[in-house]
Amino acid sequence: MTNTLAGRLAVNASVPVQASRWPARLDLAQSISGLLLALFMWGHMLFVSSILISQDAMWTITKLFEGYFFFGRSYPGIVAVIIALVFGLFILHAGLALRKFPANYRQYALFRHHMRGMKHEDTTLWYWQVMTGFALFFLATAHLWWMLTHPGNIGPFASADRVWGDNFWILYLFLLFAVELHGGIGLYRLAVKWGVFEGDDPAASRRKLRTVKWTITAFLIVLGLATLAAYVKIGMAHEDQRGERYTPAWVEHPEEHAP
Questions:
Q1: Predicted local distance difference test score (pLDDT) of residue 98
Q2: Which fold has domain 29-244?
Q3: What are the residue ranges spanned by the domains of the chain?
Q4: In sequence order, which residues have a C-beta less than 8 Å from that of residue 16 and are 6 or more positions away?
Q5: Which long-range CB contacts under 8 A does 95-103 form with residues at least 24 apart?
Q6: Average of pLDDT values for 205-211?
Q7: pLDDT by residue (tens digit) across 239-257?
């Protein structure tokens, strides 16, 4: 039996193994797609949180993306194209990330055992990135699909009706925590992986990066909760007029606001 095993090892050792660049290429594609999605989410948060400034501000940003100020009328199809591109990027990133997920429960349990034994913060962060990424398969997909099929239902009243009247606040509450945790951890791990801001002391740099990461994540979660509460408040107040679309006074009565 020993001779047989030795023979197999000898045969395997004689088989030439060609190095492939595809794992590195896929890692690079995953990093780039993750970076683009994280930056998009930061921008998206700033756009939707404009409701905290005023309903006019949120309406203006919405119409800007619909081409209102360029073409003289709104084209929700422009928003649909943007959402379709983001959806495609999300599917690409998810597919690339699946390569590193535990393939079965045995692998998952083994990883959990090692994680608890090592008590290594970066390893724990990777675990939560996997968990939030798994949650985003469902949460983000539901949100993106609805937005893709209803690109014209965005605005102070339309968004508030969806959040409150259609009970989307439940989905968005879970989505907020999942996406901000996942994105923040992802950006941190990207900086560590590619040596960004590494400095002369990598350990000290990681500590600083984690502090920045948690600060940004906490800020975005608080901002997201405040934004969600604003839409809920508007939706509750607008419940009796559900379906009505918001129009700023300077658009509805331009003669009264002419210089």
A1: 86
A2: 3 helical TM bundles of succinate and fumarate reductases (1.20.1300)
A3: 29-244
A4: none
A5: 96/26, 96/29, 96/30, 96/33, 97/30, 97/34, 97/133, 99/26, 100/130, 101/130, 101/133, 101/134, 102/130
A6: 88
A7: 989 889 988 877 776 656 5
Amino acid at site 91: I
**Per-residue pLDDT at 9 exceeds 80:** no
Q: What is the pTM of this model?
A: 0.84
Q: List, for residues 41-88, the tens digit of each pLDDT value.
A: 999 999 999 999 999 999 999 999 999 999 989 999 999 999 999 999
Residue 149 Cα distances to 159, 215, 231, angstroms: 14, 35, 21
Please name which of 150, 166, 152, 147 lies closest in space to residue 238, comparing C-alpha atoms: 166
Residue in this structure with the two tokens 């608890």, named with its chain if needed: 116
- The residues, ordered by sequence, that sit 6+ positions from 137 with a Cβ below 8 Å of its Cβ are 94
Mapped onto helix, strand or coil, the DSSP state of residue 91 is helix
